[in-house]
UniProtKB/TrEMBL annotation:
SUPFAM superfamilies: TPR-like. It comes from the Bacteria. Its main location: periplasm. Residues 1-22 form the signal peptide. It comes from Cobetia marina. Belongs to the CpoB family. Residues 113-133 have a biased composition (Low complexity). Keywords: Cell cycle, Cell division, Coiled coil, Periplasm, Signal. The gene is ybgF. This is Cell division coordinator CpoB. It is found in: Periplasm.
Amino acid sequence: MKDSLKWLCGVGALALPLSVAAAPAVEDLTVQSNSLYQQANTRLSGGGTLTLLNQLDEQAQEIARLRGRVDELEYQFKRLTEMSQQRYLDLEQRVSGTSPAGENGQEVDAQTAAAVSGGAGSNASSANASSGGDAQKDYENAFAKVQSRDFDGAIDAFESFVVDHGDSNLAANAHYWLGELYSAKNQLDASAQAFDTVISEFSQSSKVPDAMYKLGLVKARQGKAQESRKLLEELVRQYPDSKAGGMAKDFLASGA
């Protein structure tokens, strides 16, 4: 009996190492799984970056195209504005007998030139009766610069006049001449301001109808067609028998 037990124990002792050696090896898949996950993420990340770069490139091209379109529209708008201004200038020349702009665009219209040689001079003379001697002398000096076509000098002289003699009866005329001179030099904002001063601050002056007409033309040259038409229509209503009112009526009828 004891011999049998010893034999069994010996066989078991021999079999145990064999069973252990024959056990299948279990592979650790954690490292391999992490590696595959990282590869998948790398491929996905690379493809996403390429897609994003393509989208950015397409957007950059679209922005460049839109900028080009904006530049084109700005150029077209500028050309239309210039054509509109020229159209009004042509109408003004036909209505009031204005000669085309001279060198550097500086030209005082026919009505103004006539005023320099006579008409405005007589108006100034009547106003001079109630003005001081210094005001009259300064006005005449400024007026002489207009006659000699020294527009820059005339502007400086009339600007000084309205500061030094703002309460003179000649002040309205001085502001009107500033409007004419700035208009001749294509300084339209300054011209509009001068004409508006005549209208708003010297409502009883005989220069108001002329100032309204000229301001209407300046607004047209600025591209403010609706404001121009409204002002000229108001001129026709308020001063229908004035020369300026008649020119405004003709100007509007000409298609302005």
